[in-house]
Amino acid sequence: MPEAVTVTAADIARLTGYGRAAVSNWRRRYEDFPQPVGGTASSPLFALSEVENWLAEQGKPVEVSEEERLWQQIRTTADDLRLAAVVADLGSVLAGGARSADDSLAPLHDATRSLAKRLGAGDAFEFLVDRYVEAHSRRVTNTPRETAALMAELARIDGGSVLDPACGIGAMLVAASEHRPARLFGQDRDEAAGTIAGARLALRGMDIDTVTGDSLRENGFPDERVDVVLCDPPFGDRAWGYDELTSDPRWTYGLPPRGESELAWVQHALWHLKPGGRAVILMPTAAADRRSGRRIRSQLLRTGALRAVIELPAGFSSASAAQPHLWVLRRPASDDPLPSRVLMMNVSDLDPAEVRSTVVARWKAFNVRPEQSDDSGVSQAVPLVDLLDDVVDLTSARHVPQSVAGGLDYATARDRFLELLAAVDEAASALVSLRTQAGDVPMTTVSELIQSGAVSLKQSPIKMETSTGELPVLTAKDVMLGRPASGRTTDGPGVVMLQRGDVVVPLAARQIDAVVVDADGIAAGPQLQVFRPDLERCDPHFLACFLRAAGLSRTGSTASRADVRRVAIPRLPVESQRPYGAAFERLQTLSSALRGLGDAGETLIGLGFEGLGGASLRPEG
Fold first, then answer.
1. Which domain holds residue 71?
2. Please, are residues 64 and 52 in contact by the beta-carbon 8 Å criterion?
3. Is the CB of residue 311 less than 8 Å from the CB of residue 396?
4. pLDDT tens-digit profile of 137-162?
5. Residue 235 placed within a domain
6. Is 532 helix (H, G, I), strand (E, B) or coil?
7. Which of 235, 334, 352, 416 has minimal Cβ neighbours within 10 Å of its Cβ?
8. CB 104 within 8 A of CB 74
């Protein structure tokens, strides 16, 4: 293993398990901590061997696994632009394919083969793929495993042929491989992604044909007809080829509007199906009711091609933070009777662990008896005539009846309320004692922290499209309501990507709401100020605490940008800031628990009144 293998501070935190705060503390407190050997001032690189030696001398020996060493060696050898190609090359080597002629990769080939002898070639490569996805989470669209598994099961592959026309690194095809497909076809515009997909399937012993190119513009399988199409297409792609594909024969249900690329993918999938073949496509929520797509939705219904629309929980799509839809389609055969009903389903509120079994069970029941009613509040077989109106709205909320106050629903709500009540009690018990402050504390301001470099200010765009695209967006309203990111946008100039530890403040609020970001890969929405603390000099929760406190004292007035920069902050070393930050976090936890308890209480009370009044509930005893 070359001595030049390097790691970032984040890598050290993950490899050692001590956390990023501990690594920052080591760098600040110990003069003998290894000095950076590369990188930048904001993201320095350290020699892995030097870090290991230092930890051993401190009585904190860490055993870095063979696979982690290999990954760090890959990251040291390949920059971000080459990473996908290098991972693809290693997969090709493991699968017995052609290897790169680049001699600098020879040590990686040897190390990868060594790891494969211990873990097995398939598991070794899956580890590298997982690490690659983590490293490029903002660039790689990788369908979540549970979503891909659900889609493959709904499609009833049963030994048929399968095509994924936007296969990426192969998540959908890997899921399909569990259902004994006769043959697999994959296409993607990214050559490295397609190579990775091919290697993953080859290492599973599957026969797969992969081609590179945009499936809409450069269809790699123009004459191929398959039993199943699975697809997680790009969302919100306005440059999908509208102008050059206007007269394309695939548009048998209507020319897709310029802003409806997803409907182009739907028709591309149907074009490649044999009569009676099935397609399952992940779709953005907006595709169900956009006015521009109503004609195509109508034709899909009138011909019997669209069989089900299923609303999934947030997190089931890597392309959107919103709750995605699954469209289940079938290419009608010549002797097929026209279906009279379409299954509408909403499982967005279910526990993610229950989604797959629930969806599959209700889909199977619908196929056996499509006319059977369902009073669960999860799904409904909707007559075609009810869908074919002027809007052709396929959103589940319009067609699936809301859960009624049956005994199980009330019992579930009661259990949820009691769980949250216990959480409030736990959060209250965890509060730290606060005592009266004696004496003066030297103060500074946010503006001075910015000037000194302890905090940097990242200003998000004043205006931004937040309804379409692949990136999740945290909006000002999300911050004020204390909810997760609800918007979507596309990456481009001016987009500010949030990092863990950033403190975000809405510009146009009547008081200063400050939230500490706890996840990467989310864009800052319009009208948000983003304060990025230097973690060695400023604790994020300490900063958020005093911004929030200043906001409470300004209630009733408009908090302008100048107000936030003038907020007074105690001038304390970072060690003394952290207890303030910890107290702020615990108050925030209590605040969230109380909000959740209030909502759960209102639901419980409403269900109780409704059930008692409607005679579906009665008191026990």
1. 6-135
2. yes
3. yes
4. 667 778 999 999 999 999 999 999 99
5. yes
6. strand
7. 334
8. no
